[in-house]
Design a protein that fits this description.
The chain has two domains: 36-295, Rossmann fold (3-Layer(aba) Sandwich), CATH 3.40.50.300; 304-388. 30% of the residues lie in helices and 22% in strands. The protein has helices at 4-18, 62-75, 99-113, 149-161, 182-199, 228-231, 243-248, 304-316, 334-340, 346-358, and strands at residues 40-42, 46-47, 51-55, 90-94, 124-127, 136-139, 144-147, 165-169, 202-207, 234-240, 257-265, 274-282, 288-295, 362-367, 373-378, 387-388. Strand 6 and strand 7 form a beta hairpin.
Length: 390
């Protein structure tokens, strides 16, 4: 009896032998209109042919958010900032939660949306490994990735179902490479990128963070090799509400809330902070499941920790240029910096601006690169390094 893994490797090598040349050569387009536009599954979140990553500690809400997004995409309905262009097809492969658990969460989310299974239109497939969740294995001697039988079945499912997006959760269950090996992990995630390109789908995977304090918006917060963040084009961090944040809003159950922060965006803008609330839903079978819904803080708490982070951002500047105190979407607006640390409401931003000035930040005149004078925020230590007019 033939070895199925060896057969997969042989087929993969034959495919590569028949593939087009490795090197593509181009030049500037004759007309901007002729340049192909980026194709999004969900603008600002999921792009076709691109890998997106959500990094977060275990148990903080990644699985729940993934299925909330999956249901939203299949229904074609907005969920916070996640706004599908239309109802689309989505596959979720969860190596941690079995099919019944995924069904419970989908049922809870359908309740949240006020919809039924029929409204999904058969556009959602829930996948779960029958045994181990390995999709690729690394041969340490040959430093070569091998496709497993599971990956072969996943690719067959993609060809049959033709999804617009594939969700994988979590990354660590899908390979057997040493998680601190940068070269190995780069190969693993690059293989996912190839799948996204060849199948013309958006690919989203979840990854666990390293231990320690929350690193909101840090694309390198993932556990193990940092090379992962270099391969993905879009990433987010997901952390539960801290006790300090909960105290500022007088919330008694911090564990019922979590935040999603944009961490990396190569092709579009980095996403602002979004908050979500877990809502217990009692299903008809008697099980209680946590549904998820977008949540807006009453007003962000100004803490010493947030003030310290903002002071560091003020000192660094906006690409070296001083921030302006004007709140809004303006260039160099300090609002952009505040959104990076989770202060998104105007009331919270005004309070934070007052805290910055109380901490010694001043507004001074400086000379821009175009030699025009402008006002900017100056750190007590004098940063950023600009042409300040004393």
């Amino acid at each position: 009896m033939s070895d199925p893994l060896a057969e997969l490797d042989r087929m993969n090598e034959e495919t590569q032998a028949k593939a087009k040349p490795e090197l593509l050569i181009g030049e500037a387009a004759d007309d901007e209109k002729d340049i192909p536009r980026r194709v999004y599954v969900v603008p600002g979140y999921i792009q076709r042919g691109v890998v997106t990553e959500v990094i977060g500690p275990g148990g903080h809400g990644k699985s729940a958010l993934f299925l909330a997004w999956a249901v939203a995409l299949a229904l074609g309905l907005p969920f916070g900032g996640f706004t599908p262009l239309r109802p689309m097809r989505v596959c979720t492969l969860d190596a941690e939660d079995d099919i019944p658990e995924q069904q419970r969460r989908v049922a809870a989310m359908l309740r949240m949306f006020g919809r039924k299974k029929a409204d999904l239109g058969g556009r959602l497939w829930l996948l779960n490994p029958a045994r181990a969740g390995l999709m690729v294995t690394l041969d340490p001697d040959k430093v070569k990735l091998r496709h497993t039988a599971l990956l072969g079945e996943v690719l067959e499912a993609i060809d049959v179902f033709r999804p617009d997006m594939l969700m994988l959760n979590p990354l660590g269950e899908l390979h057997d490479a040493e998680e601190n090996d940068n070269a190995a992990l780069r190969h693993v995630v690059a293989e996912l990128r190839v799948i996204a390109k060849v199948k013309d789908i958006g690919l989203l995977f979840a990854h666990h963070t390293r231990k320690g304090t929350p690193e909101h918006g840090n694309p390198d917060a993932g556990r193990g090799a940092s090379s992962i963040s270099g391969v993905v084009r879009k990433s987010f961090t997901l952390y539960a509400m801290t006790e300090a944040e909960a105290a500022g809003w007088r919330i008694s159950r911090a564990d019922l809330y979590f935040r999603l922060d944009g961490a990396k965006a190569n092709h579009d803008a980095k996403n602002a902070t979004e908050w979500f609330e877990r809502v217990p839903i009692v299903l008809d079978n008697g099980d209680t499941v946590a549904g998820v819904m977008p949540w807006a803080p009453p007003q962000e708490a100004v803490t010493d920790d947030l003030t310290g982070k903002l002071l560091g951002i003020v000192k660094e500047g906006d690409h070296g240029q001083p921030w302006t105190r004007r709140l809004g979407t303006y260039d160099r607006s300090i609002s952009h910096a505040m959104e990076r640390v989770g202060i998104v409401s105007r009331g919270g931003q005004r309070k934070m601006l007052d805290a910055l000035f109380a901490a010694g930040v001043t507004e001074c005149v400086f000379t821009k690169p175009n030699r025009q004078a402008a006002m900017g925020l100056r750190h007590p230590d004098g940063g950023p390094d600009a042409s300040w007019k004393e």
